[in-house]
Design a protein that fits this description.
By secondary structure, the chain is of the alpha/beta class. The chain has 2 domains: 1-59 and 181-299, Rossmann fold (3-Layer(aba) Sandwich), CATH 3.40.50.150; 61-173. Helix content is 34%, strand content 12%. Strand 4 (204-208), helix 10 and strand 5 form a beta-alpha-beta unit. Helix 4 crosses helix 7 and helix 5 (87-100) crosses helix 7. It is globular, with a radius of gyration of 19 Å.
Length: 299
């Protein structure tokens, strides 16, 4: 089923919206799509043709909670998300969200497939669009200003009502399975090849965009740091499977791949690239996307 593109409702460090079309040119039409590090879901939303099966995952319970909530009750999420930019509320909501990120909340996300929190989802997505550019949800105290350099990001830069946008997201992700846990669960055979309805001719596409092996990323991601080498190993171990197309994002020099893998260089414009230091600017030019041997040829 072909769908038009829908923009993600929040900006995200390391998001791949600018190269989503390139990624799909390498993945091509797949029957089963797996994304272990969901982030903003910009790549899934850019898929020109919705596959039979989609499974996404993010260990960060705020991300998983948002996508679960908006796919079930977009009206409820919009109720909490539709709010003007207000600095005092940004800091107050940040503290409230951190107090909500308890082990109990995370366990509910993992153990109860029907659990979601509308208030957490709405306030989180509002904060993401209000404060991107700083480590606003780190465990350290943060007194940074809201994002004032433009009209706003995510839902604060909308050209259509928030509820209308969320309803479009609900329609698009209606059959997308949302998991909240360790990435390795998503690349086991039960997910990649064990799904009912898949035949031996069906292709599985796996998009891997883990936190990179670089300084500073621990300040902008709440979960899953220091795992890049493990993700690369899995990709290399499975890259020769003719029923699988794997796309992996990272920085040049973080890992080496054989010549059978295609590599595409691109320059990021956002996230760490906007940090006011040499590290952010130099990292922007190091972005690489690797395509496994059975991906389509990138032209």
């Amino acid at each position: 089923m072909t769908k038009s593109k829908i923009k993600s409702p929040y900006p995200f460090f390391g998001g791949k919206s600018r190269v989503a079309d390139l990624i799909w040119s390498g993945l091509g039409e797949v029957s089963n799509y797996v994304e272990p590090f969901a982030g903003s879901l910009a790549v899934l939303l850019a898929n020109p043709k919705v596959p039979k099966i989609e499974t996404i995952n993010d260990k960060d319970c705020f991300i998983s909670n948002f996508w679960r909530a908006v796919s079930i009750d977009p009206d409820g999420v919009a109720k909490y998300a539709d709010y003007p930019v207000h600095e005092a509320d940004l800091h107050a909501r940040r503290k409230w969200l951190l107090s909500s990120a308890t082990e109990v909340f995370h366990n509910k996300m993992n153990s109860d497939p029907d659990f979601y929190d509308l208030k957490v989802a709405g306030w989180w997505v509002w904060c993401m669009g209000t404060s991107i550019g700083s480590s606003w949800l780190s465990s350290k105290e943060n007194n940074s200003l809201p994002m004032l350099s433009s009209a706003g990001g995510g839902i604060n830069g909308l050209t259509l009502p928030i509820l209308d946008w969320f309803k479009l997201l609900q329609q698009r992700t209606r059959r997308t399975r949302v998991c909240c846990g360790d990435w390795t669960r998503m690349v086991k055979s039960a997910i990649t090849f064990g799904n009912k309805g898949l035949s031996n001719k069906d292709i599985t596409g796996v998009f891997l965009d883990p936190p990179y092996d670089s300084k500073g990323r621990d300040k902008v991601y709440r979960e899953d740091n220091n795992i890049f080498k493990d993700v690369c190993k899995w990709a290399l171990d499975n890259g020769d499977n003719p029923r699988m197309r794997i796309v992996l994002c990272g920085y040049e020099g973080d890992h080496s791949f054989p010549d059978s893998w295609q590599v595409h260089a691109w320059k990021a414009n956002g996230g760490l690239a906007n940090l006011a230091d040499d590290r952010g600017r130099s990292n922007a030019a190091l972005e690489r996307i690797w395509f496994s041997p059975h991906c389509l040829e990138i032209k």
